[in-house]
Amino acid sequence: MPDSGLPYSAAKAEDKFYQMRRKGTMQGWWARIFGKDNDLVPFHEVLRLVRNRRISEVGRQVVPLDKIIGSEGRYQDFTRAFFPKEGANKERWKRLDQALNKLEPLPPVELYKIGDAYFVRDGHHRVSVARANGLKEIEAYVYEVETDIPVTTDTDLQTLALEAGRKRFLEKSRIEQIRPEANIVLTAPGRYHRLLEHIDVHRYYMGLEQKREIPYEEAVASWYDNVYTPFVKAVRESGILERFPGRTESDLYIWVIENRDKFQQIAGRPLSSEETVKTFAETHKEKPLQTMVRLLKRAIGRKG
Fold this sequence. Notes:
With 304 residues, this protein is α/β, with parallel strands linked by helices. It has two domains: 10-145, Conserved hypothetical protein from pyrococcus furiosus pfu- 392566-001, ParB domain; 157-303, no CATH class. The protein has helices at 10-33, 43-49, 90-101, 124-132, 157-173, 175-178, 192-210, 216-238, 249-258, 260-267, 273-283, 289-303; strands at residues 41-42, 55-64, 68-71, 109-114, 117-122, 137-145. A six-stranded mixed sheet has the order 1-3-5-4-6-2. The protein is elongated. Mean pLDDT is 85; it is low at 286-292.
């Protein structure tokens, strides 16, 4: 809480600034050790990922400080908890800290609201000083960004990218309507668009084979029934998923299918989904690529 004892000197404010910066540095070390994100979420990256980006003015509100997770332009100057970093302005921070501890009123900050989270438009140092003094809330002018992608205080860019990619995949493919039993889940960002590309390629070859224009929904159903499902069946039967904690059948589909050409080039012939998965499973009993080459050559030699 603000120190009501007077006078509150510039030296005391400077000591607090460096204390907060040291805490931020320590927090960053621990975050790296445990693989956690210690950075503010860049607002422009969030806008790039979300849709329905109509911004409306909500007005003046009291906002919980722990719901502010990002920044429009100074996300590199403060940690996720708004500890000051090298880019923060020490003199401005000190003046604000002195003013707060002398009980002088500070102007409201300006925030964007997306879902349940907030991003600083103006007032980064005020947010940092408020948190350093133990405040729980801050007055703000709020501008709300409407979107169909959920954003929470736990959101990071990877989670958001995954959610946005999945939503667009489901909207485009309509797989949940065409095959309600489908449960396609990826854990790496940027991969859902690859599934759409696979469907487009499958549709193209269907058209060549059948000499007609293939309706998109028909291509989706055929891809799911004749490409994706046999692969998933082979993955389940191989038990290989146990070797990849935290990954899904869909993750392995992407990786193996996109490396199938390498397997087939080594084998010298086309491989079925079952053969591809079996080869992948065998090569991952050990680590090096040379193991894959050795096993494939051995298999080809037996058939010869």
